[in-house]
Amino acid sequence: QKEVEQDPGPLSVPEGAIVSLNCTYSNSAFQYFMWYRQYSRKGPELLMYTYSSGNKEDGRFTAQVDKSSKYISLFIRDSQPSDSATYLCAMSPYGSSNTGKLIFGQGTTLQVKP
Amino acid sequence: SAVISQKPSRDICQRGTSLTIQCQVDSQVTMMFWYRQQPGQSLTLIATANQGSEATYESGFVIDKFPISRPNLTFSTLTVSNMSPEDSSIYLCSVEWDRPQETQYFGPGTRLLVL
After folding, report:
1. φ, ψ for residue A98 (rounded to 5)?
2. From the CA atom positions of chain A, what is the Rg in Å?
3. Which is it for strands A85-93 and A108-113: parallel, antiparallel or unpaired?
4. Which of B53, B63, B56 is nearest to B33 (CA)?
5. Is B108:A39 a contact under the CB 8 Å cutoff?
6. DSSP code, position B54
7. Is B105's CB within 8 Å of A46's CB?
8. Which residues of chain B lie closer than 8 angstroms to A45, CB-CB?
């Protein structure tokens, strides 16, 4: 079983739709949760960062962490064609001794159609 | 955030040869990392590049195959040695940034095709 599971999609939605992207994980030591966006032929770009449980909102993007269920989500409101990309969840255990050990999901490919 | 560049951006190589990938950062950073992203797969950490000491390799990756240099706080190289078609992948360097804590920023990647 992978430490982080993410449905690779592809996910296709019409412009303006609300998009929900999700990851599940098995390691209860994970404390830091990130979402990266990766456009075709580009490196991953940090989109959202959350520490421990709760919600975080940034413009059209909302990240949610439910540690009791080991489940994280990224919501995109009023989706735009420019949101078409691969979205990767990433996680890290607590503590500086684990610096660098980001564990990534497989990535979900999203296409927003005009 | 840091600005990270990689060279080359892409290359096509023959099996049995080696390729050295360069990673340059516009600020001094303590932690630099090398990842591999195979088609349809998640990013996998190859090693942590430590300035002034040997790199720390993850399980499944060895120094003879992926030698790494880190001569200063803004530069690192990864060499893919004795390449085979299975090494065809995207190779990414990243740096750890202290705001927010425990996050990483990535370079644009090097796309390698081994024939």
Report:
1. -105, 15
2. 14
3. antiparallel
4. B56
5. no
6. P
7. yes
8. 106
Instruction: Give tens-digit pLDDT for A21-67.
Output: 999 999 988 888 999 999 988 999 999 988 888 899 999 999 999 99
Q: How far apart are CA A58 and CA B81, in angstroms?
A: 43
The DSSP 8-state label assigned to residue B52 in this structure reads T
Residue A64, token pair as written in the block:
């949610």
How far apart, in whole angstroms, are the C-alpha atoms of residue A35 and residue A47? 5
Q: What is the structure's pLDDT at B66?
A: 97
Burial class, A41, CB count within 10 angstroms (exposed 0-12 / middle 13-18 / buried 19+): exposed
Closest to A49 (Cβ–Cβ): which among B31, B100, B106? B100
| Amino acid residing at B114 | V
Quote the tokens at residue B82. 């004795």
Q: Which amino acid is at A18?
A: I
| pLDDT tens, position by position, A56-68 | 999 999 999 999 9
